[in-house]
From TrEMBL, chain A:
Species assigned in the record: Thermalbibacter longus
InterPro entries for this protein: ABC_transp_permease, LivM-like
Keyword tags: Cell membrane, Membrane, Transmembrane, Transmembrane helix
Molecular function per GO: branched-chain amino acid transmembrane transporter activity
GO-annotated cellular components: plasma membrane
Keyword Isomerase in annotation: no
Chief location category: membrane
Designated name of the protein: Leucine/isoleucine/valine transporter permease subunit
Superkingdom per UniProt: Bacteria
Membrane spanning stretches: 9-31, 37-59, 66-91, 118-141, 148-166, 186-207, 228-249, 255-273, 280-297, 309-329, 336-356, 385-403, 434-459, 471-496, 508-527
From TrEMBL, chain B:
Organism: Thermorudis peleae
ATP-binding recorded as keyword: no
InterPro entries (UniProt xref): ABC_transp_permease, BCAA_transport_permease
PANTHER family from the UniProt entry: BRANCHED-CHAIN AMINO ACID TRANSPORT SYSTEM PERMEASE PROTEIN LIVH, HIGH-AFFINITY BRANCHED-CHAIN AMINO ACID TRANSPORT SYSTEM PERMEASE PROTEIN LIVH
Protein's name in the database: Branched-chain amino acid ABC transporter permease
Pfam (any one): BPD_transp_2
Keywords: Amino-acid transport, Cell inner membrane, Cell membrane, Membrane, Transmembrane, Transmembrane helix, Transport
Length: 559, 336
């Protein structure tokens, strides 16, 4: 009992603090316009409820008897109380000179429109306690059931959020059934989505069970056929995507594709060879600016076509990859990270300077970059660029797979595991690292060149540190070293924010949380690479017995 | 190595040629050079204070606290609100010294708290994990802090109130630059005394020397690490207020560049080495202030001040290539 109360107080306070944070940075209010279910339930409410649910779950997780449920309810209640106190504070005192997000509309949102009086307080406490209780109750479900329920809820929220995206894809009657005319999901729509989201994984589980019991009778050829079928469906989906997805979705998928390309490139460097490059944007910028300088008539140096410029741009990035790789060969870990970050900034500052303005356009950038031409046909719509980017991604993917399974790929991973041992085993550190930098740079450069042509202009602001952080974050989310992880990460970190416009403002806030939380709770990522899982497990084992201080940072050899 | 040396010699040559041409052309008067140097020293003092936070954490944990620039920013930003309130009530004019001390103490407290919480949440659970892991959480924490401040206090620039006492000049030197430089020196002195004479300071030094042995001798390692972050954070907070006195404005992104430059200073002096960090800060501050006019102007580069950050990054890269142990050249991390 005592333990339950203590945990409830701790997590209730943390939850209350988180609620204050979310409200005061403006996240809650930003989403108040996103109606998820009917007219009333907005994404703001869902965020607050999710917070209460999480707090309840965390309290109940360690306590297996009924006091856990009680503690969970208490913690939820505390979060509700914190929300009410904040609402009252914002309603009575004008905090706006300090906290810019403490707007007069905030109290209403925080109290579910029940006012800051006794009614509001009662509602918040009740809702908090009830949702916290439910969160505690989640710990009583078996793990598979819990996962199914949470996934179903998440899918329902996602469907509600992506209404505008879904409307061009599904026919009008389906949309009319699922959604209310002006708000979010309709009630029968919600029920259908939840039921489907629950039914599909259960059905898959049942099928998998049956399949595994029949595995003996299923011939190798049948399995192969199934795999081929899955691939064909995947290819058809990807190839036909812009035809039915519309302009907006094609545009978003173009950007996701460019980030996948960069992610695959950085994955070679960070995921395979274990070199944290925080200046990856430099290659993206060099690729884009090469394309701009070579093709734009504005600067008047060259006026090549897209296809002539593309290989030159990629070659430029390969050369710069080697040039950047050479001086940092002997650095490890954090030193490498900060040096590459320095390189990335140098590139940006040089591009921005008046000194190179006649050659690179300075702060105004360069416009009128060439479009790719195929005979008489000019590629200039996002739907058409999609195919170009898709081919680029496919190429990079193929290269990554072949490199990973090759001798050089194994050399990279050996360096990642232990550089000294790798060298002692006869791996040429210099060539291996330079190859990683050069191929990684080539993919970043290709992405940059395509980007420049797609948006038809380059400005220095497009090449800030945030791009590098974006790419690192998407790798971390998907799983460092994992190729499918790159796609998952890019969809979640680039695709979702593009679709949720209100979210743009808070993108980096969420990235920060994602980076920290993933490293603490799920270091292998959402779609981990197999060897990485093993490695992290071993490192965790080792970490228990070894003092962390023994590793030196910079190697002294070879000076 | 041949390539690296070629680059090194080339850079040196460029610096010499540029300096010669600037001096030969007589572009700047002696008074202007003097101003550059004074400004460089004040700026260097601020870098030195931030650099100490990097170097102490490095000495104890062998990791780079990438989010330290944001600790600096949070101190400067929070103190802005106190300064604003004080200025509005006229205290900044009537009781300038007490007001300034209050600002410094407040900023130090905020930065200290944030640094300690940062360690507790983002670094402690991952102690003993592969090296890359705490670095990634540090990057994450850095962005989380930046955008929290942006969300809470807005993305615009807030103008620090001026302290009337610090306006004006003595012997042709701006008073605030003198105060900033002396303030930085005084804070360095306090830090030295703290590490030398207090039990906590002793514990920090012991943990930096050998974590396991210190633990065996009964030192509470977690507490010592927390104190390291607390002390480093407090200094960053002080640096934040001094920075705001010089540049008179705060913004959520302000921690990024000083953070990197302070890191450069720490590396320049020899990371893990306290006097090294202070020296590195001063050197970098000077080079950055004098450099663009001295050797970039001479090379015929227009608007050379735009490239002063490039100088810092180039120094960082060159130091890491040619002398990763820094100016003072001690063995890595042999002292806090």
């Amino acid at each position: 009992m005592e333990q339950a109360v203590r945990r409830a107080l701790v997590f209730g306070l943390i939850g209350g603090f988180a609620a204050w944070h979310l409200s005061l940075v403006g996240l809650i209010e930003a989403f108040a316009g996103r109606r998820l279910i009917g007219q009333g339930v907005t994404f703001s409410y869902v965020l607050l409820l999710a917070l209460m649910l999480t707090v309840g779950y965390l309290v109940g997780r360690r306590i297996s008897n009924w006091t856990g449920l009680l503690g969970a309810a208490l913690a939820g209640l505390l979060v509700g109380l914190a929300l009410w106190v904040l609402a009252l504070l914002v309603a009575t005192v004008d905090l706006r000179t300090v906290f810019v997000a403490a707007s007069p509309a905030l109290p209403d949102i925080l109290t579910f429109n029940r006012g800051t009086g006794a009614v509001g307080l009662a509602v918040l406490l009740l809702v908090g306690a009830a949702v916290g209780f439910l969160g505690g109750g989640l710990t009583w479900l078996p793990a598979t059931g819990r996962r199914a329920v949470l996934t179903a809820l998440a899918i329902a929220v996602l469907v509600g959020l992506l209404r505008d995206v879904l409307s061009p894809i599904f026919p009008a009657p389906v949309m009319g059934f699922l959604f209310t005319p002006t708000g979010g999901l309709s009630l029968p729509g919600t029920a259908t989505v939840l039921a489907l989201a629950l039914a599909v994984p259960i059905a898959r589980q049942v099928l998998a069970n049956r399949a595994s019991s029949h595995r003996g009778s299923l011939s190798v050829r049948a399995l192969q056929r199934r795999r081929v079928a899955a691939r064909v469906i995947g290819v058809v989906f990807l190839a036909s995507f812009p035809l039915w997805a519309g302009l907006f979705l094609s545009n978003v998928s173009d950007f996701v594709g460019l980030y996948i390309l960069m992610g695959l490139g950085l994955n070679l460097v960070l995921g395979f060879a274990g070199l944290l490059d925080l200046g990856y944007v430099a290659f993206f910028a060099i690729g884009a600016y090469s394309m701009a300088v070579l093709t734009s008539p504005e600067l008047g140096h060259f006026t090549l076509g897209f296809w002539e410029a593309l290989p030159i741009a990629v070659a430029m990035t390969v050369v710069s990859g080697i040039l950047i790789g050479l001086p940092v060969l002997r650095m490890r870990g954090d030193y490498l990270a900060i040096t590459t970050l320095g390189f990335g900034e140098i590139v940006r500052l040089l591009v921005l300077s008046d000194w190179l303005k006649p050659h690179l356009g300075g702060a105004q950038g360069v416009t009128r970059i060439a479009r790719p031409e195929l005979g008489p046909f000019v590629i200039d719509r996002p739907q058409e660029y999609y195919y170009l980017i898709l081919i680029g991604c496919g190429l990079a993917w193929f290269l990554s797979v072949r490199l990973r399974d090759s001798r050089i790929g194994r050399a990279w991973m050996a360096i990642r595991e232990d550089e000294d041992v790798a060298q002692a085993m006869g791996i040429n550190r210099v060539t291996a690292k330079l190859l990683a930098f050069a191929t990684g740079a080539a993919m970043g450069g290709l992405s940059g060149a395509l980007f420049a042509s797609l948006v038809n202009s380059v400005i220095p602001q497009s090449f800030s540190l945030l791009v590098s952080i974006n790419v690192v974050a998407l790798l971390v989310l998907g799983g460092i070293g994992s190729l499918p992880g790159v796609v998952v990460g890019a969809l979640a970190l680039v695709g979702l924010p593009e679709l949720l416009r209100e979210f743009q403002e808070y993108r980096l806030l969420v990235y920060g949380v994602v980076l920290v939380a993933m490293m603490i709770f799920r270091p292998a990522g959402l779609w981990p690479e197999e060897t990485r899982v093993r490695e992290l497990e071993e490192a965790a084992e080792e970490g228990k017995t070894r003092a962390p201080a023994e590793v030196a940072a910079v190697t002294q050899d070879g000076a | 190595m041949v390539i690296a040396w070629t680059i090194g010699v080339l850079v040196l040559l460029l610096v010499l040629v540029g300096s010669y041409q600037t001096l030969a052309a007589g572009r700047y008067t002696a008074g202007q050079w003097f101003d550059f140097v004074v400004f460089g020293l004040a700026q260097g003092g601020i870098y030195a204070l931030i650099a100490l936070g990097y170097t102490m954490v490095y000495g104890v944990l062998r990791m780079i606290n990438f989010a330290h620039g944001e600790v600096f920013m949070s101190g400067a930003f929070s103190a802005f609100f106190l300064a604003d309130a004080l200025a509005r009530r006229g205290f900044l004019e009537s009781r300038p010294i007490i007001s300034l001390l209050a600002l410094l103490a407040f900023a130090a407290l905020v930065s200290m708290t944030i640094a300690v919480i940062l360690e507790r949440i983002a670094y402690r659970p991952l102690r003993g994990a592969p090296r890359l892991v705490p670095l990634i959480t540090a990057v994450g924490a850095s962005f989380f802090l930046q955008y929290t401040f942006r969300g809470l206090f807005g993305s615009g620039v807030r103008v620090y109130p001026t302290v009337p006492l610090l306006e004006g000049a003595v012997f042709g030197i701006q008073v605030k630059l003198i105060v900033v430089f002396l303030g930085a020196l005084a804070t360095l002195g306090i830090l030295w005394a703290f590490l030398t004479f207090t039990r906590t300071g002793l514990a920090i030094r012991a943990v930096a020397e050998d974590m396991e042995a210190a633990a065996l001798m009964g030192v509470d390692v977690n507490r010592a690490i927390s104190s390291t972050f607390a002390v480093g954070g407090a200094m960053a907070g002080v640096a934040g207020v001094l920075y705001a006195l010089v540049f008179a404005q705060v913004q959520f992104f302000m921690g990024f560049l000083p953070g990197i430059k302070a890191f450069t200073s720490a590396v320049l002096g020899g990371i893990g080495n306290l006097p090294g960090a202070a020296l590195g800060g001063l050197v970098l501050g000077l080079v950055e202030s004098v450099g663009p006019s001295l050797f970039l102007d001479g090379l015929g580069i227009p608007a050379a001040h735009q490239l002063k950050d490039v100088i810092a990054f180039t120094i960082l890269v060159l130091i890491l290539i040619f002398r990763p142990t820094g100016i003072l050249g001690e063995r890595l991390g042999s002292r806090v």
